[in-house]
Write a structure and sequence with these properties.
Layout (H helix, E strand, L loop, with lengths): L10 H20 L6 H4 L3 H12 L5 H21 L7 H4 L1 H13 L7 E6 L2 E6 L3 E7 L2 E6 L6 E7 L2 E5 L10 E8 L2 E5 L4 E10 L2 E5 L9 E10 L2 E5 L1
Parallel strand pairs: 1-3, 2-4, 3-5, 4-6, 5-7, 6-8, 7-11, 8-12, 9-11, 10-12
Helix pairs in contact: 1-3, 3-4, 4-6
């Protein structure tokens, strides 16, 4: 018996519909049926709709954060275009930094992470704790994790590099979750070939690269990587 999957509105689906609407609008303008300029002032509604879809998806906190940012920006520009109020992004952009800082604070779990912070230097260590973290600012950190009960952790790289080697680790309670934040920095995570890895983050002018090779299609140990990548990169490999 075949089961039909439930219809789900995704950001990609919403964006596809919006692109179709824009294409139809400019076609009608070329045919002198409508005047496109009367409608283009409503373009910030695209940000509001796309942000709302992203915000209300059952996804990560970072997706909800950036969905909310898009909705606020769209509402500001739309109100300005309709002469409802005055909005200029350069007057309010520092609030994005405030919101980003709040997000970083709220996304921290209640677990007690064992780790260290590296500033203007390099740090190498062997970690046997179940939950580990590393924070790097203008420096580098390399950590080898050997625990057989890895549960996750937190990796932060700001204008620096962070590397965590999990090839000698094991996950007894799957899935393990690693929260990442890379800003003008890079994070490299090495995992065993028997693990399955999934990414639930938000790259902004940055990228995520999965170079893992799995030995089998059924993996009992899984790792979830969540977080935000801004003008940086996160790479996962074996």
């Amino acid at each position: 018996m075949e089961t039909k999957s439930a219809f789900r509105i995704t950001p990609q689906l919403a964006l596809g519909f919006l692109i179709i609407v824009v294409g139809v609008l400019f076609t009608l303008d070329n045919l002198d049926i409508v005047y496109a300029r009367d409608y283009t002032r409503w373009w910030p509604a695209v940000l509001i709709i796309y942000g709302a879809v992203k915000f209300f998806q059952p996804d990560t906190h970072s997706s909800k954060f950036w969905g909310g940012v898009l909705m606020v920006l769209g509402a500001g520009w739309l109100g300005d275009n309709l002469d409802l109020f005055y909005f200029r992004l350069r007057d309010f952009w520092p609030l994005l930094l405030v919101a980003l800082g709040v997000m970083m604070i709220l996304r921290r779990g209640t677990q007690s992470y064992a780790g260290s912070a590296t500033i203007f230097g390099a740090e190498k260590s062997v970690d046997n704790s179940s939950v580990t973290n590393a924070s790097v600012f203008l420096g580098g950190s390399k950590r080898n994790v050997h625990t057989q009960d890895f549960r996750g952790g937190e990796l932060t790289a700001v204008m620096g590099g962070c590397e965590i080697d999990l090839r000698n680790a094991s996950i007894s309670h799957s899935p393990a979750v690693i929260d990442v934040f890379a800003f003008w920095g890079g994070i490299e995570i090495k995992v065993p070939q028997s693990w399955s890895v999934s990414f639930e983050g938000t790259p902004i002018m940055g990228g995520y690269d999965d170079k893992t090779f799995r030995q089998s299609t059924t993996a009992e140990q899984s790792l979830i990587i969540r977080g935000t990548i801004i003008m940086g990169g996160v790479e996962v490999g074996n």
